[in-house]
Amino acid sequence: MKAVVAQGYGSAAVLAVEDVPIPRPGPGQIQVRVVAAALNPADLRSLSGVLAELAPLEFPHVPGSDFAGTVTEVGEGVTRFAVGDEVFGIGLPRATVHMATLFASPPSLTTGTLAEYAVFEADTPALALRPPALEAERAAALPIVGLTALSLLRVGRFQPGETVLVIGATGGVGSAVVPLLAAAKAHVIATAGAADEDYVRGLGADEVIDHRATDVVAETSRRCPDGVDAVVNLALPGARLIEVGRVIRSGGRLLNVAYPAPDPGAFERDDLTVETVYGAARPGDLDELAARAAEGSLPSPISRRYRLSDGARAYLELEQEHTRGKLIVLTDTHA
Ligand SMILES: NC(=O)c1ccc[n+]([C@@H]2O[C@H](COP(=O)([O-])OP(=O)(O)OC[C@H]3O[C@@H](n4cnc5c(N)ncnc54)[C@H](OP(=O)(O)O)[C@@H]3O)[C@@H](O)[C@H]2O)c1
Asked: Could you list the residue range(s) of the whole structural domain that residue 307 is in?
């Protein structure tokens, strides 16, 4: 089969589309014919080697976690899914098995979704049936960003009327977290370049600060002299968040998902909650995301689509270019 493959650690430039053997499911696993896969920054972080000590990759390595596709084979003991089922979800690279304790429930490990076929553990809330009302490409765009947004909303316990600054609102996680915050009736201030202002307002942002043309901390302080109730950080590395903490009112919270995570002690403020949140599927979460997407309250916008044969270029563009919403790869026969 065709797959996007890395033969060693490196940037997106080491990826190429190659022929590799079709993975077969073992006991408790399913094989899926991938219809659509979404790209995520974490795919490139694993490939870079920064996690090599904790979770060494095996090469050839096929990247990709988010997917939608059709079950083509079930392993021994699988009763939850049958051949022909339309499914979607998230499988983490098998190398991350030692990091599973970070997640509230067991992740489904995978052979990599940027491929014609991938294998997943079946018995986990990280996989679900795709409702017919939700197209495969939209289902593939949802899992990582949607689960992360759900986790942020649970941890943040946002109240109607609270002011929340979302840093990095134009990307994948922003496309899920801004609509969920708006649905919770928070007042959302989103950072976005001028060309993305209408886009983030369409997601539900009430105000926009152009992070390319403006000092976000100074501008937020000007607009909210008493401080915002919370900051949701989807972009800045931990060390850059110390100054961002200045715009949060006493008793407020800073919720982070980006890397590297901030050190809460570095803020030297005991009136501030600083927490890094990880997206993990609880039972029913994927069904909830699919229902919200199908009814229209979670738009899961896709800005670019690629064929699998262009999958390596797609990762280069994720690495080097501005992203709005999600980038999706469709297998060649479906593109
Ligand atoms: N903890 C978890 O479980 C989890 C889950 C998913 C993602 N993540 C992490 O969360 C981060 C965001 O993921 P994503 O999928 O949304 O990434 P993405 O699609 O690449 O989007 C990132 C966004 O951040 C914006 N940005 C970059 N630098 C910025 C800055 N200095 N100020 C304001 N905005 C800035 C970019 O907009 P411009 O191009 O306009 O600057 C881009 O739209 C990544 O680090 C990812 O690895 C963590």
From this structure: 2-141+300-330
Mutate to test the pocket of ligand 1, among 257, 302, 319 (most ligand atoms within 8 A of CB): 257
Token reading at 164: 């929340």
Tell which atom from ligand 1 comes closest to the C-alpha of 318: 20
- Read off the pLDDT band of 335 (50, 70, 90): very low
Q: What is the pTM of this model?
A: 0.96
Amino acid identity at 128? A
Cα angle for residues 63, 292, 281 (degrees, 5° grid): 45
Indicate which residue's Cα is closest to atom 48 of ligand 1: 257
Q: Which atom of ligand 1 is nearest to the CA of 170?
A: 43
What are 34-62's pLDDT values in tens digits?
A: 999 999 999 999 999 998 988 899 999 99
* 295 belongs to a structural domain: no
pLDDT confidence bin for 334, thresholds 50/70/90: very low
d(CA 329, CA 188): 31
> 278 in ligand 1 pocket by Cβ < 6 Å?
yes
In a shared domain, residues 166 and 187: yes
Number of domains forming the structure of the chain: 2
Q: 202 and 219 in one domain?
A: yes
